Amino acid sequence: PEGIPWDSVNYSCAYDSLFTILFNVYGTWPPHVVNDCKQMNAEMRVLCESFSAVAHNQSTLERARNDVRKAMHRLNNRAFPLLGRKGASVPELCEQLFRDRTPYINWVHECPRCKTILDERPSSSMLWYLSKPSWKDSALSGGDMRSASMTIWIDKIRKCKIQRICNRCTRNTVKRMASTKTPALLPILIQ
């Protein structure tokens, strides 16, 4: 697949790695997903419009990267430096790109055994963080998942065990999600 050459003067590897992946799946997105992504936030709009220009041979991936990089720098100049040998973090870049203008997801940490709710908070981030142990436990609990549908995978992820213990009964908690709309994208960051 087409990729972005690394800028060794102004470290760009976080952008290059993420945008290479996103650009190569961008062409498979239906128009309504692209439109939904453009509505998420200003930085994602820049990314989608830049990808469209690249797909129509009106721009380059390097220019797309630099346009989004400037937008991210305006958002937070410490987390997203524009010049020099201090790069951005891939998780932070994902967190900022994959957020909606308004909170529509409610994350709840609860104990599946005693039903104690440990934490409940609204979020505008669409990024799901999973630790490797919890991802492995969740994926393996369903047996052979190689031919499972996306719905089954998402259901597994939604009920993923969290490395947090219930104060009341000392069992692992689960993190579940309730949303007011279906997100256009569901990015998952496995740590």
Q: Count the E strands.
A: 6
Helix content, binned percent: 40-55%
User: What order do the helices and strands follow?
Assistant: HHHHHEEEHHEEE
Main sheet record? 4 strands, antiparallel
Could you give the distance between the termini? 25 Å
Radius of gyration: 19 Å
Explain what the structure shows.
- Helix 1 (13-26) packs across helix 4 (61-75).
- The mean pLDDT is 81.
- The chain is built from 7 helices and 6 strands.
- By secondary structure, the chain is α+β, with helices and mostly antiparallel strands.
- 41% of the residues lie in helices and 17% in strands.
- The chain has a 4-stranded antiparallel β-sheet. Strands 3-6 form a two-stranded parallel sheet.
- It has helices at 13-26, 31-40, 42-55, 61-75, 90-97, 132-140, 150-158; strands at 105-110, 117-123, 128-130, 161-165, 172-179, 188-190.
